[in-house]
Amino acid sequence: xxxxxxxxxxxxxxxxxxxxxxxxxxxxxxxxxxxxxxxxxxxxxxxxxxxxxxxxxxxxxxxxxxxxxxxxxxxxxxxxxxxxxxxxxxxxxxxxxxxxxxxxxxxxxxxxxxxxxxxxxxxxxxxxxxxxxxxxxxxxxxxxxxxxxxxxxxxxxxxxxxxxxxxxxxxxxxxxxxxxxxxxxxxxxxxxxxxxxxxxxxxxxxxxxxxxxxxxxxxxxxxxxxxxxxxxxxxxxxxxxxxxxxxxxxxxxxxxxxxxxxxxxxxxxxxxxxxxxxxxxxxxxxxxxxxxxxxxxxxxxxxxxxxxxxxxxxxxxxxxxxxxxxxxxxxxxxxxxxxxxxxxxxxxxxxxxxxxxxxxxxxxxxxxxxxxxxxxxxxxxxxxxxxxxxxxxxxxxxx
Length: 399
Ligand SMILES: [Fe+2]
Description:
Elements: H1 3-26, E1 28-30, E2 34-35, E3 43-46, E4 49-54, E5 56-58, E6 65-68, E7 74-79, E8 83-90, E9 97-100, E10 106-110, E11 113-120, E12 126-131, E13 138-143, H2 150-161, E14 166-169, H3 179-188, E15 194-196, H4 200-203, H5 210-216, E16 222-226, E17 229-233, E18 239-241, H6 246-258, E19 264-269, H7 287-299, E20 302-307, E21 313-318, E22 321-326, H8 332-337, E23 344-350, E24 357-362, H9 376-380, H10 388-398
Parallel strand pairs: 6-8, 13-14, 14-15, 17-19, 19-20, 20-22
Antiparallel strand pairs: 1-2, 1-18, 3-4, 4-7, 5-6, 7-12, 8-11, 9-12, 10-11, 13-23, 16-17, 21-22, 23-24
This protein binds fe (ii) ion (FE2).
The site of fe (ii) ion has 6 residues, from helix 4.
């Protein structure tokens, strides 16, 4: 090999290594083939005010609106001159208590939104930290595949009605035109906070849609702890290559490296580990990616994975993980089975010094929420036989 050939080979090898490292860091998503989006910023600044953000992010194109993606968000402000700060933080429990030494602070509660104003002095940091009073004993709800219309509204209402402090939404709130915008509005005005894992219909449809998720709803992957429970949001909306790369892989590796003692970890993700029907197209994208997720869950001592994607209720231990599928957020299975108690919502009961217990409450989707024209073919196919009486009731509710 002459010198020039060897140099070209070294350059090509170096370029391949740099490209490989870049792709590993960013992660490649498919379908639709794309680089993974950048992380949500943990620090923002404008007009001489800098804010560092924990468990919350700034809405796209807004300097004064933020949203929490965990129950106990924290913000630290610093400014280059004395001034009054005003902003709002969405997705905060009505029961959360603000701890701060901010001078002349005013906090208005409007549902799950807090409107805050306070004085800040130049070069004197101000910390605001919301904490909830229910760390040791609380109930949380979980369901997915609700679409973004009346059915989502009902799931949010029902979660609160069942005593949940927050909802883990398992993705797929975007089934039709207008759903994304409606869902964002519904999540922002929900009766309780919602922590959302992205579904495949929220990630891409005819093109990539996921920027709306990170602009207005939260990160693809995140983690928070409350009492003795750690909640881990893992994005399985589209496959990641390499499977241990990208943001999901970095979060999992960081948590493994930290090795924090955590008595219980509940993971939530859109795609389940398995499809109980045996139709393998409705679980995580590939067997190798699934096995990586399972291995990661074991390393993190996560015994439970809540997921949706398949519009059923199922609870199966799969390779050592209790995989609970609650993908009945549209309530359609009530009609398909002629049984209004078929569709279920998971309720996790956290109690001090004991393992989480899961109960499953009927979604109780009202009949008048089955009136959308897209339901007509389903209802038409059910008007005879054992479903006849129920569909008559639905027709009456819709007339
Ligand atoms: Fe899905």
